[in-house]
Amino acid sequence: MGTRRQFLAPSTPIARAAGTYRVAELRRTHPITMSTVVLLLQRSISNAEARVCRMVRSQWRDVCKNFMRRYQPRVTQGLLAGETARKICVDLRLCEPSMGSL
């Protein structure tokens, strides 16, 4: 059986789960393919974020849409970078950083 090519960075949750490691190789040999994959991921995340507001009660829907309009680019960027929800929340200054053990 031939070797299986693996393309996602190991720092992303998806890549860790799949055990994939060759993003640098893909970027070098297929730059158009990589930009297409990133664009598709961004669209997929944006679509998922839009669906969230449709699931919210009607009285909160406008608040949700305004929140998404304001923070969607940063949330999308964080998700693509493999950041945790907590880190994104802290970076947006919507959550306080946890103190951890002293």
From TrEMBL:
This is Saposin B-type domain-containing protein. The keyword Transmembrane helix does not apply. Gene3D superfamilies: Saposin-like. It comes from Chlorocebus sabaeus. The keyword Mitochondrion does not apply. GO terms for cellular component: cytolytic granule. Pfam families: SapB_2 (PF03489). InterPro entries: Granulysin-like, SapB_2, Saposin-like, SaposinB_dom. The lineage of its organism: Eukaryota, Metazoa, Chordata, Craniata, Vertebrata. Keywords: Disulfide bond.
